[in-house]
Amino acid sequence: MKIFICASMNNVKKMLQVKKKLESLGHNVFLPPGTDECLKDPELIDDLKRDLKYCLENDVMAKGFELIGRSDAILVLNYPKNGVSGYIGASVLMEIAVARYLGKRIILLNGLPSMKKARWVIEVKMMHPEIIKGDFNKLEIN
Fold first, then answer.
1. CB of 107 within 8 A of CB of 132?
2. Which of 11, 86, 90, 127 could form a disulfide with 112 if both were Cys (CB 3.0 to 4.6 A apart)?
3. How many CB atoms sit inside 10 A of residue 15's CB?
């Protein structure tokens, strides 16, 4: 299966680990545009002015949406962040919406927080995601 990984760039190293794991299981994996740059320069992640400049100059969002279109599924690495387990940020939420619109399979690595803890949970649930609870073996190869 062709899988596009969605995650906060704070998890760039984890994205690489998951990519290797999925490839060892026979999947073809796409990483978000800008992943290599964030690995080379980790300060780019938190320097919002530089990050925005890079993203605009390289049309990162459009390139990511294009990769979603070429994929069979997206895998959201929703690790804990900012005290919220199963965290999903704004960019990933947009990627989930694009995947849903394109009819792609939406897979969450971890469960979601309660709707009381994070208002955006209702929007994610409306996208009919599958939750694999960290078990990559639940991803069948098409």
1. yes
2. 86
3. 22
Cα 75 vs. chain centroid, distance in angstroms? 6
E strand or H helix at 91, and its extent? helix 90-101
Domains annotated for the chain, with CATH where assigned, are 2-138 (3.40.50)
Backbone Cα Rg of the chain? 14
- The HSE-up count of residue 73 (CA atoms within 13 Å, CB side) is 22
For residue 9, the 8-state DSSP code is G
- The whole-number average pLDDT for the span 8-31 is 95
Q: Which sign, positive or negative, has the C-alpha torsion 25, 30, 31, 36?
A: positive
* pLDDT tens per residue, range 107-125: 999 999 999 999 999 999 9
Put simply, whether the predicted model's pTM sits higher than 0.90 gets the answer yes
